Amino acid sequence: MKIIATDRVGAEHVLDGRDGWSVMEILRDAGLPITAECGGACACATCHVYVDEEWLGKLSPKSDAETDMLDMALAVEANSRLSCQITCSDALDGLKVTIAPE
Amino acid sequence: MARHETDVAILGAGPIGLFAVFELGLLDLKAHLVDILDRPGGQCTELYPEKPIYDIPGLPIVTGQELTDRLMEQIKPFGATFHFGEMASALTKLDDGRWMLTTDAGTEIVAPVVVIAAGAGSFVPKRPPIAGIEAYEGTSVHYAVRKMEAFRDKNVLIAGGGDSALDWTLNLAPIAKSLTLVHHRDGFRAAQHSVNQMRELVAAGKVKFEIASVKALHGENGQLKSVTLAGADKKEWTHACDMFLPFFGLTIKLGPIADFGLNLHENLIPVDTEKFESSTHGIFAIGDINTYAGKLKLILSGFHEAALMAQAAFHIVKPNEKLRFQYTTSSSNLQKKLGVTA
């Protein structure tokens, strides 16, 4: 699967997702500026992304923990998600995300 | 201002800084620790106190808080001194060859060895990405409440949905001229009783609650006059206020370590893998803050680094003494230090 990620200066990056890995791990390993301080434990809100509207409904819904943790993210919008909580799968091939501001 | 003399000054009271106390203590080296947080544990207790960790040798499952509690118990015999709630702000070399670590609270720790176990740096408040916010910080924008009186008779705006946002909404509402809480949703991750109390104040007209976010700040010379708020429907409006308190939790910034004059590589301190010493003699770096070929950011790696660092630190602190390697299982000398012999 491919992930199309837009960074904070608007540049688009096409990344290879790995089945079962989190989108945060793919962004981080590609060297994109995602902090992910807690390492993927849904505990810090520093892997915040905006999900392209057409993909929003295809993701598994937010858990209560993710909804709560998004309260600690900055510039939250209706399409905000924590990328450590999105799991790569073929169903998400072409997923478009934008890294939220720091 | 207080000045302390000790053997080793440790920056960071996370798991690696704590275990360093143990390894140094076995070699009769005393330590002072500085941490910006108000309690030990670093990321373990600040980010994931309740989350299980599965890769600590011998502990199949342990939470960040439990690991911290156990380390505190393990290092108790060595009587380390903790300086919590202070940020290490400067490191200077004294004429006698020792180092002086200064904190933002004016504490001075003088020691021949400094160990940087600072993880990714200092936990600092998250700054909302609003253009020009820096110009208002300290005057109209505050990330913590130091003196409540500063908010008396002010039009206060609080943003956030966690315990800090709710607690300060409740505490400042009685003294502020007006108080508005903004949050991006009508739900909170704060304690339920605080949320209930806030809703009672809203119902009584004493607090205003808006489902919105702050988009822009307006004012001059650091004095805020109003903000632009945007609701869920993207509709924007102006809200008059003179104090803004954003509460979005903490994030980690390298902070003053960047100005210590150490050799840095992508915000990490390169070290050798024999002593875990930086390129500056007497300054060691252990745990997530260091880098070397093959580095893994694991707690267990930091423990190993602490043990080897302690051996090297001994020779700097006690240059004329011979270091004898001993096991805690068999050495009555070590067991006496640990307080486990009769």
Which strand-content bin applies to the residues of chain B? 25-35%
Distance between the termini of chain A: 27 Å
Number of helices of chain B: 7
Average pLDDT, all residues of chain A: 95
Structural notes for this entry:
The complex is a heterodimer of chains A (102) and B (342). Chain A is an alpha+beta fold and 102 residues long. Chain A has a single domain (2-99), classed as Ubiquitin-like (UB roll) (Roll). Chain A contains three helices and five strands. In chain A, a hairpin with a 5-residue loop joins strand 1 (2-6) and strand 2. The longest helix of chain A is centred in the N-terminal third of the chain and has 7 residues, at 23-29. In chain A, 42% of the residues are buried. Chain B has 342 residues and is α/β, with parallel strands linked by helices. Chain B has two domains: 3-124 and 251-338, FAD/NAD(P)-binding domain (3-Layer(bba) Sandwich); 127-248, FAD/NAD(P)-binding domain (3-Layer(bba) Sandwich). Chain B contains seven helices and 21 strands. Chain B has helices at residues 15-26, 43-46, 64-75, 163-172, 192-203, 299-317, 332-338, and strands spanning 3-5, 8-11, 31-35, 52-53, 62-63, 81-84, 88-93, 99-103, 108-111, 113-116, 122-125, 155-159, 178-183, 208-220, 223-231, 236-240, 243-246, 250-253, 269-270, 283-285, 290-291. In chain B, the strands form six sheets. A six-stranded mixed sheet of chain B has the order 16-15-14-13-12-17, with helices on one face. In chain B, helix 1 (15-26) packs across helix 6 (299-317) and helix 4 crosses helix 5. The longest helix of chain B has 19 residues, at 299-317. Chain B is elongated, with a radius of gyration of 24 Å. Chain B starts with a strand and ends with a helix. The mean pLDDT of chain B is 96. Chains A and B meet through helix 3 of A and loops of B.
Q: How is the secondary structure organized here?
A:
The complex is a heterodimer of chains A (102) and B (342).
Chain A: E1 2-6, E2 12-16, H1 23-29, E3 48-51, H2 53-56, H3 64-70, E4 80-82, E5 95-99
Chain B: E1 3-5, E2 8-11, H1 15-26, E3 31-35, H2 43-46, E4 52-53, E5 62-63, H3 64-75, E6 81-84, E7 88-93, E8 99-103, E9 108-111, E10 113-116, E11 122-125, E12 155-159, H4 163-172, E13 178-183, H5 192-203, E14 208-220, E15 223-231, E16 236-240, E17 243-246, E18 250-253, E19 269-270, E20 283-285, E21 290-291, H6 299-317, H7 332-338
Parallel strand pairs in B: 1-9, 2-3, 2-10, 3-6, 10-20, 12-13, 12-17, 13-14, 19-21
Antiparallel strand pairs in B: 4-5, 7-8, 8-9, 11-18, 14-15, 15-16
